[in-house]
Each structure stands twice: as C-alpha cells, then as structure tokens.
Amino acid sequence: MILSFTASADDDQGPGSSKGGKAMDAAPTGVKLTTLLPEKISVDNSSKKTAITATVKNEGTKASGEIDLLVVGFDGLKVNGVQGCSAIGEKDLPPGSNSGFKCSVGALAAGKSKSYAVDATYDLSKAGKICLPVMSANGKETFWQQGPVPFGTANPSPNAPATPLLLGTDNKPVAPGGDTLPRTGAGDDVLPLGAAGAALIAAGAAGLYWSQRRPRQPLRG
Prior knowledge:
By secondary structure, the protein is mostly beta strands. The protein is built from 1 helix and 15 strands. The relative contact order is 0.23.
C-alpha cells in the first residue's frame, strides 16, 4: 500500500533530536547516518491524533547509497501512515509493534537530510514508543536505529483539548478519575524477539531481524 496523503506536523514540535539513537552496523566509509524526531508532540485528547516528523540525515562526507527508513509504532503509539511510504505487512512487523512503514530514501547525499510526515494516533491510557531504523536497501545492514524511544508526560491533562508529550519521557497515564494506570506493553526499552529473547535495540539485532523477516517480494515505496 502506497500512501500519497500529506500529513503536516505541528509547527511547535521544536528542533529535531537523535535521543535514543545509536550506530549499529558499520556504514560505508565517509557515510554517517542518523535520524531525528521532534522533541515534543501534541496529542488531541478527543481524536487521539498526532503528527510527527521523522528525519533521516547523512552527516558524512560521501553519499550513502540506497537506504530505507522504517517508522515503527509500539504500545499506545500507532503509525497510521507515512507520506510517500509503504505499509509493512503484519507478518513482517517485529513482535510487540502495532504498525510500521518503509520509506525508500534512495541515495542520500553528504550533508543532506530527508523528512517524512508521520500520521499517528496515541492512546494516552498507555505508554507509547516509536522506532526509526535506517537500513541498507537490501535489508542486510542496519546502520542506525533510534528507539524504541518513548513519547510521554509525567503530568497528564485529560481535561485539556490536547496533551503535550516529550521525546524520551515515559508516559504516566491517568484515568479520568485521577488514578494512575499500570504501565503497558514491553518493558523499559527492551523488546524480546521470539525464542532468542534478543532485544530490538541490542546491537545488530534489528538488522538481523528485519533481514530475516524481509518479504520475498520487496515492498515498493
């Protein structure tokens, strides 16, 4: 499925941040790939809708070669669409995730970046995380991975029109009556991957996982 809609992110998302990101497999010489997420987002309390800007950047001195950016949602944060990107089939999503899209970035020139408008919903009664792996187009290497990193707030405002959430903050859900709800979903930044029990954020795990689970017919972005 190819999405052609335009989802515009909030103007007040603030500067991008690579918080929760780390280099994985070695990138080609002269290539340094990172991702950026907004430092804050705002969730509409009635519709649960939010917009996020996901950016991939080459901070190196040489072009990257063909790369893909994945945008994956966890727990209360569900990715409904990413502008110009294709949905990842349910059978190819990592365990624990609820949604994901693959963006065919192509070759990213040195010093250049590319941003994608992410349309999402956030169930504020849960914790929520997002993950941005940057992979080679053949799925064999994961050069960088940001997350799964949480968006959340320690001071929920259920009666306000919208709730601001900060990157790297665990969400502390509160029911309308004010009682704190239990944490939901995977534990703190650790997601077991099948019988091996590896974590998605462990070095090399994401690249290995997605290369093994990559569909026989590549998604077309």
